[in-house]
Every structure is written in structure tokens, then in C-alpha cells.
Model the fold of this input.
Amino acid sequence: MMLHFPALLVVVPLIMSFLIFACGLFERRICFPLTLVTLAACLLFAGGSFWTVLSTGQPVHYHLGAWAPPWGIEYVVDNLNGLVLVALAIVALLAAIYAKTMVEREIPVAKHAPFYALYVLQATGLFGMTVTGDMFNLYVLLEIASFSAYALIGMGEGAAPFAAFRYMIFGTLGACAYLLGVGYLYIITGSLNMADLQQILTPLYQSQVLSVGFAFLLVGTGVKMAYFPVHTWLPDSYTLAPSSVSVLLAPLFTKVGAYVLIRILFTVFDPSFSTTLLPATQVLGWIAVAGILFSSIMALAQSDLKRMLCYLIVTEIGYIGIGVASGNRLGLIGSIFHILNDMFMMAGLFMAAGVIQAHFRTRKTHELTGLHRKMPVTSAVLVIAGLSVIGVPPACGFFSKWYLLLGTIQAGQWFFMGALLLGSLLNAILFFRIFERSYFEARPDDAPHLGKEPGTTFERAAMSELVPMVLTAAFIILLGLFSGYIVEYSIAYAVPKGM
Amino acid sequence: MTDSVQPLIAVLAPMIGAALILMTGNKRPNLREFWTLLASVVQFMAVYGMIPQITQGQTLRFTLVPIGKALALELRVDAFGMIFALLASFLWILVSVYSIGYMRNLKEHAQTRFYFCFAMALSGAAGVALSGNLLTLYMFYEILTISTFPLVAHKETPEALRAGRKYLVYLLTGAGFVLFSIAGTYYLTGSLDFVAGGFVSGRGSGEILRIVFAAFIIGFGTKAAIMPLHEWLPSAMVAPTPVSALLHAVAVVKAGVFCCLRVIFYVYGPKTLNDLNLWIILATVVSFTVIVANLYALTQDNLKRRLAFSTVNNLAVIILGASLITFDSVRGALLHLPFHGFMKITLFMCAGSIYVATKKELISEMDGIGRKMPLTMAAFTVAAAGLVGIPPVCGFLSKWFLSLGALQSGEILFLFVFLVSALLDAAYFFPIIFNAFFKTREGNPGRPVREAPFLVSAPLAVTAFLSVLFFAFPDAMLRFYTMGDLVARSLFGGR
Done:
């Protein structure tokens, strides 16, 4: 049974998403439990596969339909994506629990069934992108994830359909670029399997076709992971998306994109190719420096909490880019670890933002006065996740920055290091502005927006919203405290040999 | 090296206390204050209990979690850390009593937050003292910084919020420098564990070691209020007096000094500083602070601000003593670290006591106050005399060793720095005392003034008494002298 876990990780949610839709037509209340069961099963599959990898020390290979690799599709779980898969599954499950009450609040009853179906389909795409060992299969799953994301975002408030449309244009361009890249590689190698490609490509590194394909792949992935300057689709769509959706998409989608980038740069291509032969990582690094500064400052300029967090995602992606750009072992450990950490940090922050919007009835950062009095747990989560983003130990954000920092020093890239430190400082200003609002009141009961709608009284956040939030905060601390074990037993093996 | 949970208790007790304070909340203030007192006593007992082993030259260790090869979050107790841990945890008990009296008399708001953050800050301070390596140190250093921010901004007035923001910007920028240095040190040496006498020598070119050292001092120096990075400290005086007393005279700023000294003694070491000629640069920079801070203090009319500049001066004196790296100057610095804490906390508690009794903050309004509040002003006089360096108060001892050390260093200039500093101390403390006792206030007497309540005045009497006691018996109770001696011996070999 455990043998089939990598495939079940994709097949089960795929089938379930259709089943949820079908069942939902008759009884909409069954959708949520089914979603939960599906995602819990996915956590089991992901955890089981990763456990096999850890205990045997060997990657798990699964050949779909028993077709041998270069011809058939292969799913692979190794130290790199095993960890990402587990984190994905945990966050997706927490986000689903969190979404229950949010969905009832935000989504019209008639759309509940399609919503949950798309939700699970979204998770399918993300799991698939991570687990697959096949370039073209990755494209297919990328599009599954993207299209469900467009639809989910379109269910949001105000101009959400337009934002989703814009995202779709960008996303499709990105997907096209990716597909072209895969096409170029296929032309010169005749293979789509990642491990196979790695073998075949090595003698072809001087080929111009290869360089072009490589560039297309990077651009395509860059768009999907919201790498500055092709991040422009992100702030609008994630801000206007329903809270239940942004809490799934914001932490996970860009991070899976980052994982794909690392896969392409360091597994499909040899590290020596990406870092020295065609110094793509250098270029990515300098763009990341600009991106970190730009998006940090943009985040400072936002008065909408969610939009601010959206720019923060772009900053965090920049950090991951810096680690990749260092082009050494330490930097890459930092990047991979940051992918994990950022999933939890962003999940915590977006969950808090969603709860604040729903119960405190505002998203404006300057209207958060007295938040801690009304919502002590939510503000505490905001503080923990915020401090982690700033990089205060023992929260996990510090430890990934620590490796990133060591990476830049080893690479002798002082500007990259400066960007890391300066970015943390700008994030500190960002968050302490909010903490100040929420914890220090100018006057007691100075919360004008609460009285805006007559008859509405403040309702406490539901347990199903608080528990996932608190668990996420706990993960943030635990990941930090046990970072040594995570790095030593898993990430250290994920970094390609020879770095 | 013995494994022991005592250091962990010292760090965890305030953290658990903080959690209990938060859970108890405003509804049951007596229970909440009980947690503060309990946590402070437990913390002190845990630290105090380690004295016998440390004076025998042992090192206690507790590993929290490993982080990587040759790196762990680890607590390790040596004599140097004990000095700071003893100082902070002992004074916390007294200040807890004092702050209960102070906060209740002034009916301050948000007291739960106050006590919560106070306990967290003490956890951070103990952690800084007992850290076994730079990474652990950095963690607790950040916890200390962040938990102090709500205390600085406690009053929530625009002025307090401004002070809080200034505090954060200064300290977090400093932390950035520190992080760079720590990462640099790790990259150069592959280790972050403190070693008496340093572990960086020969692990990089002189240039790089100098840059890293400069970043260390800039980073930690921000917290130690070395000029020109001191600006946040006088502004932070807007905080309630117990905060100024314990945190801005003892725990926070002393943590900065402590970290500077850690770097000087245990990361770089006397020999490396000598070889790279760094000590004379550092000594010159802090000498500037020593003198200029005192000149600033002369011009301040707000009592707490004057005390703040006096703190800046004394912190620089400690670092100056350390940077001279002679046997006696190091002992002097290590004695001045706790002794200044006792004296300065007395002065701050006096300022708070005056504020509680009269709501006065300006020195020019304090004429004749000595006759209304004899106990407070007597304590003030003792502590001020001690800071100037007049026997029989403990400040004399530490300044004596510092001066001896300046002579040993062969740079006579620094002896004059110490002497001029003492002279300026006298110039700004004695007028306050003189006016308080011998001048009468003209015009409207206002409401009658009495001594502040017992909970406020008792702790300051105790610290004033201890300041005198430590002159006669510098090794009494908390064993500061032995500890300082142990550290100096470990650095320079037995003498």
C-alpha cells in the first residue's frame, strides 16, 4: 500500500474533487467533511512517502502504470520534495479547517459544492507539481493548479473577477513560456523525465537551443512564483480573493513555484551549469535584491493589511532567490528551509488577516486600534508570525535567514547580504507599525469602525478558525527550535552533491 | 563541564511566570503580582544556587537543541555570566516590590502587559548572561529587545510611542550589525562557542577581523548606548520609572555592555585585540563617550534624563576598563558592572519615589525636597557619592581598580579620563543634593509632601544599604569580587 503513496497523493484528491462536486449537488453539507478527509489522507500519503525516504535513505520512485521512466511518467519523492510535500499537506489541511466558517460567510450557498471541488483540485495541482518527476506532467499539474486558482480567486469580492482574469493572462503567458522551454528541451533530448534529462543534457551544455529553453523555463517559473518583476498579478488577486482562498493560495502556490525553480536549476540542470556556465543564478540574485527592496517599500506603503501581506510574499520569494543566487550549499539550504518556513508564516499571517476582516470588520492597518483587547489570540498569532518574518529567534524565520546569510557570506556577495538585512529591518517597521496599533490604544474604546453597522455586535472568532491559527503559530516556533534536526536529517541531503 | 538544569530554570522561570501573569490578567491583580514575585525569587534562587560550583571553577551547561555541526542553542554558565545573572535576578526581586508599589499608587493602565513584558525581559537578560555561544546570545538579545519595546511605549502618549519607535529602530539596526558579525565569525571559525581568551585569532586577515569587530561593537554598542548611538536611551526615559530603573540602568543596557565584554574577552580575546591594535581604538572611542555623556548630563534638568546620561557615561566606563585589557582594569570593569547597577537603580528608584510623592520630574523643582523625604534623599546621596567614587560606597572600589588598570596599560591618558569623569559626576550630582537639603522652595508650598509609600521606599533603602555594604565586603553574598577575579585569571593566567 505504502508503495503507491506517491501516486495516491495525486489520484485521490483528483477523484475526490469530482466526487465532492457531484455529492455537493445533492447535499452541500457533505462537501466540507469530504474535503477534510481527502486532505487528511493526503497528509498521510505525503508523510508516509517522506518517512520511507527518511528511513531507507533512498528516494521513492513510482512508475505510473508501470511504464519505465523515460517513456512513462515517474513520480519521485526525495529529501527535497518530501519535506515540501509534508509541509504542503499540513498547511492545506489547516487551511481547509480554517475555511469552513469563512466559506459560509463569503461564498453563496449555491457555490459551495464547486468551491470545495476547486479547493481540492487546487491541492491536487500543488501536490502533483511537487511530486512529479516529469517535466510535461509538471506543466499539466501546474495548469490544473493555476486554473482552479483563477476560478477560486474569481469568487472574491469587488473586482476579484477582473483580478482573476488578469492573473489568468499572466499565468497563461508564464505557462506558455514554461511549455516552450520544455519543448526546446524535448527537441534536443527527446526526453521529458527529469532524471533522464539531467543525464542527457550534460554533454549539451554549450548548445544554444538549450540556453533558450532554459531561459524560457526560468521565465515561466518566475511568473508562477511571483518573482519580481513579474509579480504584478499577485497583489490584486490575492487581496481580492476570499479569505478562505487566499489562506490556501498565498502560502502555498508561490512556494511550490520556488520549489520548481530549485528543481530546474539544480536537478534538471547541473548546479555548475546554472551557477557558472550560464550564470542564471547571479542574474536571479540581482533581480531578487531589487525585488526585496521594491516590495518591502511597497508593503510599507499599503494601508490594506492583506495587500501588505501580498507584497510581503514577493519579498519572501526574493529571499529564496538570494539563497539560490548564492549558488552554494548553505545558501541552498537556506532557500529550501525558507520555502517551508514561509508556508507556515504566510499561512499564519493570512489566517489572522482573514479573521480580523471577518470579525473586526476592517482590513485597514490604521483601524486596528484595540485589536488585542477584542481578539487576543489573533493578535498573538500575528505577533509570532510577524516576528518570524522579521527574523527573531527562536521563530523559524530566523534560522532560514541564518543559512541564507551564511550562504551570501560564503559567496562573498555583500549586496545580497545587505539586501537580506535591510529587508528584515523594513519588515520590522512594517510589523511593529501594526503591533503598535493593535496593542497601544490612543484612547480606550477608540474603534470607530466597530460601530459602523448598527446592530452588529462583535462576534468572537470560531474555534475552527482559532485552532488552525494557533497550530500554525506553534509550527512556526517548533520549526525554529528543531531546525537543526530538519536541516541535518533532510535538507542537507536535498542539496545536490558537488555543491 | 557539568550538565545541569539550573541555568534552564533561571531562564524559564520568568517565561513561565509571564505566561501565568497573562493568564491571570487584570481581574486578580494580587495573584498576578504574586506570580511576578514568585518568578523573580525562583529565578534568583536558581542563579544563586550555582554560585558554589562556579566559584570552584566549574562550568555548568544545558543544551537546548542542536542547530548544526558544532552549533547548538546552549546555556553555559561561567563566572562572567554569573556576575550579570546575579545582578539582574537579584535586583528584579527588589524592583518587583518597587514596581508593585509604584504602579498601584499611580494607578497605571495596562499593568498586565507591563508585568508580562517585564518578566519576558528578565528571561531575556538571564538568557543573555547564561548563553554558551553567540547564536544563543543573539536569540535572548532579541527577546530582550522586543519585550522591552512595550515597556518603553507604555504610556501610549505620542511622546512615548515616538520613544518606542526610536528604541526599536536603533536596536534592531544594531541587531542587524550583530547578525552580520555572528555570521561572519561562524564563517571564519566554524564555531560560535565562547572561549576565555577568544577563538578568532588567525582565522582571517586582520582587515576582516577588524571589520567584524567593528560591526560587533556597533551592534552591541547600540544597546550599551555608546555615543553616537546613545540617542534612544534618554528618549526611553519616558517609560515608567521601574522600567528605567531595572531595564535602562541594569538589564537592557548592561546586556549591551555584557555582550561587548563577551566579544572582547571571549570571542576576540586580549591577545588578538593587542595584535590588531583594536583596543586603543575602542578605548579612545568610549573615552569620548565617557566625557561627552557627562557634559550632556550637566545640562539636563529632567532628573531621569540626567540619570540616563550618567548611565551612558558609566556604561562607557565599563567598556573602557575592559578595552584596556589589563588585569586590574578588567577586574575594575567587572566590579563596576554590578556596583553601578546597584547605585544607579537606587538613584532611579529615588527619582520614581519623588515622582510618586510629588509628581515632580524636574531638578529645578526639587529644592528643599530632602527635608520632606529624608529617606529617599539620603539614599540618593549615598548612591550619588558612590558613582562619583567617594568611599565608603562600592563605586570607589571599582574606580580604584579601573584607575590602577589605566596605569598598567601604560596609557596615562585613560587615567585622566576616569578622573575627569568622576569630577564631572560630582559636578552634576552635588547641586541636586545640596539644593534638596539646604535650599528652601520659595512661593506656594502646594500640597504637603510625605515620604513615598513603604513598597516604594523600602527597596531603595535596601539597595543604598547594599551599595555601602559592598564597599566593606565586596565579596559579600553575591560573590562579585571572586567572580571578577576568576574571570580576570582565566583571561590573563593566574597572578
Observations:
- Chain B touches chain A through 33 residues (CB under 8 Å).
- Chain B has a mean pLDDT of 89.
- The longest strand of chain B covers residues 60-68.
- Residues 304-495 of chain B form one domain.
